[in-house]
């Protein structure tokens, strides 16, 4: 596979971030077992996008300075901070919303590994 152009690399990063964010949002609000199929679908979409990004990130242009936005590591950090705040706010009780933020933080953390290549 040939190297991605700069524009295609930026589009890949932004579309991956948006799809994982939407899937994470669906996951946060679908942690009710009555709608487990929506949760499973959101997690499958998230997994597919993460695998796709891992494969395509190898072909992103490498520059001495960052020209592609690095957004996955800060997103992972802030997702986990929000999860910790939610847990502390509920006096140590782990709520479904905090579990959703942890899932989102882990997904962004996985994408941050591939992000470190470019």
Describe what you observe in this structure.
By secondary structure, the chain is an all-alpha fold. 71% of the residues lie in helices and 0% in strands. The chain has helices at 6-29, 36-57, 72-89, 96-115. The radius of gyration is 16 Å and the shape is flat.
- Please state the average pLDDT score: 83
Structural class: mainly alpha
Q: What is the overall silhouette?
A: flat
Instruction: Quickly count the helices.
Output: 4
Uncertain runs are: none
The H/E string reads HHHH
Strand elements, count? 0
Proportion of residues in helical segments: over 70%
First-last Cα distance: 16 Å
Content of β-strand: under 5%
Largest sheet: none
Computed CA radius of gyration, to the nearest angstrom: 16 Å
What descriptive keywords fit this protein?
mainly alpha
Concise summary:
The protein has 118 residues and is an all-alpha fold. The chain contains 4 helices and no strands.
Which helices and strands occur, and which strands form pairs?
Blueprint: H1 6-29, H2 36-57, H3 72-89, H4 96-115
Helix pairs in contact: 1-2, 1-4, 2-4, 3-4
């Amino acid at each position: 596979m040939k190297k991605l152009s700069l524009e295609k690399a930026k589009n890949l990063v932004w579309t991956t971030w948006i799809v994982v964010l939407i899937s994470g949002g669906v996951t946060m609000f679908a942690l009710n077992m009555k709608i487990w199929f929506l949760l499973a679908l959101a997690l499958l979409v998230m997994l597919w996008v993460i695998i796709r990004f891992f494969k395509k990130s190898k072909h992103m242009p490498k520059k001495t300075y960052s020209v592609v936005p690095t957004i996955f590591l800060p997103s992972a950090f802030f997702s986990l901070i929000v999860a910790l705040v939610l847990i502390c706010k509920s006096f140590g009780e782990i709520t479904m919303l905090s579990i959703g933020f942890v899932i989102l933080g882990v997904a962004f953390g996985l994408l941050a590994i591939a992000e470190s290549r470019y």
